[in-house]
Amino acid sequence: MSRRAVIYIRTSSETQGEKSSPLEQEEDCRRLAQEKGLQVVRIYRDVEKYRVGNKLVEPSGSRSDRPGLLAMLKGAARDEFDVILAWREDRLYRGLRSMLMVLETVQDYKIEILLAKENFDSKIAPIRAWAAQIELDGMKERMEVGVKARLKAGKANTGQDRYGYIRIGENIQLVEEEAKWVRNIFDWYVQKTPLNQIRKHLIAADAPPGAIAVQ
Q: Are 83 and 6 in contact (CB under 8 A)?
């Protein structure tokens, strides 16, 4: 009887240089399953943003609350499969906490990990996870430095214009007619004026719709 395998697929903006699509990951893992004589019984995916509290987050490899990952680990505890197939090790985790979750589960339930693009070695996995975390932290730091540099240079960082500013090429410029309403809103806010009262002030002053939407 063939051993049962599941495929785990993950993509996120943390690896913009990575050229693997979800389809490519699945095809490579299915090819590996065929070579090893495994029966693929399920595919787990973390490829879209998901909600944590009141915000949407990327399925980063450093996160241990990814829905697909958690569902897969629960399946392991229920003895639903024998092997986990993934494209590379960093698809499963890029941080120590998520690594510990995966490795403890596969050890507890005698599950094997096979990778399509590299060999898996549980002995050096912690070192790889640590290196991946360092790389990810470095990427975040470089992005933050880039954002601050663009703001300092008066350049926009998002595709959406903010009320009180106008985008001209890569630069952002103040729109004084709108900015005065933003200043009024800020002054009322620091005076601890309730938001509904700020809205009434704006309506009474015949503020433009954009200013009313800001608060």
A: yes
* Domain containing residue 195: 177-214
| Same domain, residue pair 115 and 210 | no
Mark whether 17 and 119 lie in a shared domain.
Answer: yes
The Cα 12–Cα 29 span in angstroms is: 18
How would you classify the pairing of strands 112-115 and 83-86? parallel
* Under 8 Å between Cβ of 9 and 91: yes
Q: Taking Cα atoms as reference points, which of 138, 134, 130, 174 lies closest to residue 154?
A: 174
Residues 36 and 95 in one domain: yes
Which distant-in-sequence residues (6+ apart) come within 8 Å of 136 by Cβ?
Answer: 14, 60, 61, 62, 94, 95
DSSP summary character for residue 132 = H
pLDDT at 184 over 80: no
Identify the residue whose tokens are 């241990």: 64
Predicted TM-score (pTM) of the model is: 0.60
166-172: long-range contacts at Cβ-Cβ below 8 A with a sequence spacing of 24 or more? none
**Which of the given ranges, 6-15, 34-43, 144-153, 186-195, has the highest pLDDT on average?**
34-43
Q: The tokens 């470089």 sit on which residue?
A: 142
Give the residue among 139, 144, 78 at the shortest CA–CA distance from 105: 78
Q: Establish if 114 belongs to a structural domain.
A: yes
User: At residue 185, what is the residue type?
Assistant: I
Into how many domains does the chain fold? 2
25's tokens:
């990951």
